[in-house]
Amino acid sequence: MRAALLEEIHGELTIHDVRLTDIGPNEVLVNTVACGLCHSDLHFIEGTLPQRLPTLLGHEAAGIVEAVGEDVTEFKPGDHVVGCLNAHCYRCSQCIGGRTHLCENRLALQKRANGTSRVRFGDEEVFQLAGLGGFGEMMLAHESGLTKVPKELPLELGALLGCAVITGVGAVFNSARLQAGSTVAVVGIGGVGLNIVQGASLAGAERIIAVDLNPDKLELAKTFGATDCVNAGETDAVEAVTELTKGGADVSFEAIGLAATAKQAFQMIRPGGMTYLVGVSPAGTDYGFAGNEMVLKGRGVQGVYMGSNYFKRDVPMLANLYLQGRLKLDELVSAKISLDQINEGFAAMQAGTVARSVVIF
Ligand SMILES: [Zn+2]
Ligand SMILES: [Zn+2]
Description:
Layout: E1 2-6, E2 14-17, E3 19-20, E4 27-36, H1 39-46, E5 55-56, E6 60-68, E7 80-83, H2 93-96, H3 106-109, E8 119-121, E9 124-128, E10 138-142, E11 146-148, H4 155-175, E12 183-187, H5 191-202, E13 207-212, H6 215-223, E14 228-231, H7 237-244, E15 249-254, H8 259-267, E16 269-277, H9 291-295, E17 300-303, H10 311-323, E18 335-337, H11 342-351, E19 357-360
Parallel strand pairs: 5-9, 12-13, 12-15, 13-14, 15-16, 16-17, 18-19
Antiparallel strand pairs: 1-2, 1-5, 3-8, 4-6, 4-10, 4-19, 6-7, 7-11, 8-9
The structure holds zinc ion (2 copies).
């Protein structure tokens, strides 16, 4: 099958013919229909998140089941599925505690039972990001890393549920358990930030303040439910949010992964408020929060991994919200591209001009 491989840091992805191993027990073979380009992929390309090479990236993927391995009862050929970054075992203490997104065995489940990769380039093992590798024409994944979605859901939109949407809406629903009537600030309006905005809107926030440097992204945020926009390039974002909320937001979310914006997000919450860090930062980033700014003002900071998702519950729920007309997905897609255009897609992301580019196979 054709797949876009990362062979060197800072390099472009290169299209090669790669091979998947035979379908093992508990594995599912999927024809990839669509895969979104995510900032986390860019971290691997730029080397800010180190990874073994060659790597097959792509983790915001959806497709149609082609075949299933031994002991797979949940899926059959023809099922429409969305891929999950965090395959899970249902047996470790995190899974038993309901935190399948933090499964202690998720890295092992991203490989074959014998610990080798499911993807080969010649004789070489290719690291399969998230156990999915959505930038290939087919994906071979552990059954726990997939969930069925209704066939009425277009898969090019379904793909986005697997990362941008679950990360954003999940941060609001699962991590913050946002109370209706809350005031919310969202710093960073990319694919994830837009979904935090629409999650806060669905959860009944009173005020949703979008903060970004890009006026086009702020305009887009309004259509996703933002009640106010702050252009941090033109005004002091902390002062603006503090004034709009008369003393600070109840809850803020940072969706970029930078120390400067994380600090801003923290400074714009009221005493007793909470900041949720959603953006993935370059390895080694130190956010440097002052302890007494938390202790004496009763404020908190919580990291959020993948929207604290419970994947097989949350993704079908989000699909249904879309089919009922209550969740925006079409508007998240700013470009549909072919696999051959994947480097142009990442260049557009680096330029900061688009919400989401999606590779259509
Ligand atoms: Zn992602
Ligand atoms: Zn587990």
